[in-house]
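Intended use. Records such as the Copper-binding protein entry shown here are meant for training and evaluating sequence-to-structure methods. They are not intended to support clinical decisions.
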Amino acid sequence: MALLSACKKEAEATKPAETAPTNTGSMTGMPMAGPMMHGASTGTVAAIDAAKGTVTLDHHEIAALKWPAMTMSFSAKPEQISGLKIGDKVRFEIDWDGKLGAITMIQKFGS
Ligand SMILES: [Cu+2]
């Protein structure tokens, strides 16, 4: 009687070398405060702080930013606020980065 010893040959599962792409794109690693938005509206000068370089505007709705009317301060350059006084009616444009609004244009209107 011959005993057959089964010779087990287990095929070793060969793992395919998975080379996952590590390059996830060129836009990563660039911290950004947020998309810069631009808005325009009209309002009334409520306060001016030349030392801090801010102007506070009681402004109307800013549709581009989905803002209701409110009173808030914006950063402004000296030459932008030098000709203003409290109570002036102004039209203005701002850049908004999500935290801070900066006046890019401001001018009195009416008279
Ligand atoms: Cu506002």
